[in-house]
Amino acid sequence: MGWLVTGGAGYIGSHVVRAFQAAGIEASVLDDLSTGFDAFVPDGVPLTKATLLDRDAVRAALQGVDGVVHVAGFKYAGVSVQQPLHCYEQNVSAMVILLQEMRDAGVDKLVFSSSAATFGTPDVDLVTEQTATRPESPYGESKLIGEWLLKDAGRAHGLQHTSLRYFNVVGSGTPELFDASPHNLFPLVFDALVNGRTPKIFGDDYNTPDGTCVRDYIHVADLAEAHVAAALRLAAGESIEPVYNLGSGAGSSVRQIMDTIRDVTGIPFEPEMHPRRPGDPDQIVATGELAARDLDWQMRHTLQQMVSTAWEARQKAGDAYPA
């Protein structure tokens, strides 16, 4: 018996698998490898190569598991605006199939990897679980619908669940696992430096200490441990909140990120300054107090460690890093 990690061959999911292993808990993976890598799945961990839209594959993967950590999904908020139907198919239709098959298999525990995109652009600097949800993209909407589906499934047939919301995930828990997203800040900056380009900052006139946007950055290994802590709480039958924010409570500015990357990589550069992008708020940071109370949530890594582990993984990837 163990836990099924959907999307367990991806950047976040593969760290969740390793966190289960570190806790002495068996894990299995279902992943279509659309953005993941089979090499990210540890030896001996069962891997079902299939999409969640494949009902038969989902049914087979659920046999003999205690619960599910649902990480799989279409995660590109900007792209979701151009491809809303694809986003809803991957994030909503797929979850409906997963929940139906879980119900039929008698698997009644689920930890959902949700998103701070459910908040849209908050009108507060420090986001809490009570902050209003106003998603501004099909991606954010699909994650919020996912949370609604869990609530309804819990009410209808006893599903035990929780959803974890977070902003920017960075770093690496082991050099073998890297972030290959073409939209995330760290990979974008690393890719620019590796290819001899100058990284860009969009806007230095925000109402922040150094004029650049302030955002929440959390280390992927800390995030993975929180998923496992939530799974253990569900398995023990302990009370659990329907939603937790996994935040730093402080955040880091884009300028701070750039300065730290320069220090860690040893590559001298001065970012190109460009006009701010429409809709970018000055600061979005979440508190993690509730998760600290129930899930032992902590920021165990400094910004320096976030950058250094991410850079080490990017260097080790070498030719394996997608162009």
Automatic annotation (TrEMBL):
Transmembrane regions listed in the UniProt entry: none
Lineage of origin: Bacteria, Bacillati, Actinomycetota, Actinomycetes, Propionibacteriales
SUPFAM superfamilies, alphabetized: NAD(P)-binding Rossmann-fold domains (SSF51735)
NAD-dependent epimerase/dehydratase domain location: 3-247
Keyword NAD included in the entry's annotation: yes
Record's protein name: UDP-glucose 4-epimerase
Named cofactor requirement(s): NAD(+)
Any one Gene Ontology molecular-function term assigned to this protein's record: UDP-glucose 4-epimerase activity
Recorded catalytic activity of this chain's protein: UDP-alpha-D-glucose = UDP-alpha-D-galactose
Organism encoding this protein: Nocardioides jejuensis
Source domain of life: Bacteria
Alphabetical keyword list: Carbohydrate metabolism, Isomerase, NAD
Gene3D superfamilies on file: NAD(P)-binding Rossmann-like Domain, UDP-galactose 4-epimerase, domain 1
InterPro entries reported for this sequence: Epimerase_deHydtase, NAD(P)-bd_dom_sf, UDP_G4E
Family annotation (PANTHER family): UDP-ARABINOSE 4-EPIMERASE 1 (PTHR43725:SF53), UDP-GLUCOSE 4-EPIMERASE (PTHR43725)
Enzyme category, top tier: isomerase
E.C. number: 5.1.3.2
Pathway: Carbohydrate metabolism; galactose metabolism
Gene Ontology biological process: galactose catabolic process via UDP-galactose, Leloir pathway
Cited Pfam families: Epimerase (PF01370)
Family the entry assigns: Belongs to the NAD(P)-dependent epimerase/dehydratase family.
